[in-house]
Amino acid sequence: MFKKINEEDSQKNLKLMLLSASVLVGLFIYTLIKSDSAMEGGSYYLGIGFLLLLMFLSFYLQKYKNKIRQIIPKNKYQDDFEQSLDKSKDSNFNQYEASNITASTSDVTFADVAGISSVKEELEEVVDFLNNPQKYKEFNVSLPKGVLLVGPPGVGKTLIARAVAGEANVPFFYQSGASFVHIYVGMGAKRVKELFLKAKAQAPSIIFIDEIDAIGKSRGVGSNDERESTLNELLTQMDGFDGESGVMVVGATNKIEVLDEALLRAGRFDRRVFLKLPSLDDRKKIIQLYCKNKKIEIDIEKLALNTSGFNSASLATLINEALLSMIKRKSKLISDDDIEYAKQKVQYGKQQLNILCHDEKDVLATYQASKAFIIKQKVSLFDEGIKDDDCMYPSKTKLKNKIKENLAGSVGLETIKKEKYLVFQSEIDLAYKIANDMQDKYKMINNADELILKIKDELKVEIIENLQEILSFKQTLIKEEVIVF
């Protein structure tokens, strides 16, 4: 396809050169015939000689264009791409050839993304890899091939990928995982191949695959030949291109646990960046960013405090709805009334169906404070799950501690509030799973239910004995939304 276009352009350029030279030679000859004085000046003969040379050069280029094309060096990836298009003759190729995979340039930078201070250092390193590869090649350091962004919906994974591309000032190829899923078997794999060839042809560049779990699910789970062939091609491409290709693959997912192990191994997605719901301080920065260059009469600190559980997308929608309310009022200032109107209008996701009221925030803070006291790790108000320190040979004591850590929040809440609450179902499920595995698979205990009851009793005693410290943790979480040990 590209070869055909290049040949047509070359033919047009050569014909235009030949026509221009012929016309100019004709004009000079006409001038010489009509003007005797022209014969006295050497500049005319010099001009004619130059134009004759131009005509000769045009004829020469036309005659030997194929040999000249072979001498001119080409980008090897561009050549590979042309050959792959020429070789493909199957009946479905028209869809493949007409695909809309194109590079875009990003004008988003880190200055346009707030609330990513915890991961910014890692991302800046990725930008440096793309901008200054020689700095690392001097020491035989292999550049990371892939970066996986993991986090709940709405935390800005796509925006962060665009910011990396904007900071590095490189072409940005955006594709969603679903775009590789086709009716025809093999079309997804061809699309993956085309994507990588185009990215290599414009290296350094970034490939961003959003919702990568659409094609990256573990093979054998919900078997699908088309999806598996697409995943195999993605694995081959990521394993096949070397670190000097200048292509960085950035993937985004909400469900890292469903991804195929081969996709997560070293040499493919070398780095993982975990994104969380913004903290109180992050929300302040995000609101300030969205209110930039807008006239406001709202208390940003108070708004940040009252938007617990909001992700950056929810905050953007909130400010946008407030602006629409302001326009309807024919005002030029965003007021508290506009914010309240926006809160009623905006529809939030599963975890943000309603803005947390004071009582709900108190319940969540009590749960997380109890958990923080037991695990002695950094805990944010909306953190779900506990960081696992993958132990290859866990002992019985180690497994019991894991059960204790996962039950700490619910037991603490029940002990302090004198009532049972359901906060994070996943932590309770994990505690019971470990206990059942200890009974059925590991044969470490005789009765899982008895172990659970025993651990709950131990937790109640420990929480009552340290109640004041836990309540202090709770107040810190309500005010700052994070506890750091």
How would you describe the overall organization of this protein?
The protein is 58% helix and 6% strand. The longest helix is centred in the first third of the chain and has 33 residues, at 2-34. It has helices at 2-34, 42-63, 65-71, 76-87, 93-97, 117-131, 133-137, 157-168, 187-201, 213-216, 225-240, 261-264, 280-290, 300-305, 312-328, 336-345, 358-375, 396-417, 425-440, 448-465, 467-480, and strands spanning 146-150, 172-176, 205-210, 247-253, 271-274, 379-380, 482-483. α9 (187-201) links the parallel β2 (172-176) and β3 (205-210). The chain has four domains: 2-72; 82-274, P-loop containing nucleotide triphosphate hydrolases (Rossmann fold, 3-Layer(aba) Sandwich); 280-349, Helicase, Ruva Protein, domain 3 (Orthogonal Bundle), CATH 1.10.8; 358-483, Peptidase M41 (Methane Monooxygenase Hydroxylase, Chain G, domain 1, Up-down Bundle), CATH 1.20.58.760. The protein is built from 21 helices and seven strands. It starts with a helix and ends with a strand. Residues 1-6, 88-98 and 348-354 have low confidence and may be disordered. The strands form two sheets. A five-stranded parallel β-sheet has the order 2-3-4-1-5, sandwiched between helices. It has a two-stranded antiparallel sheet with strand order 6-7. α6 (117-131) runs parallel beside α8 (157-168). The protein has 485 residues and is α/β, with parallel strands linked by helices.
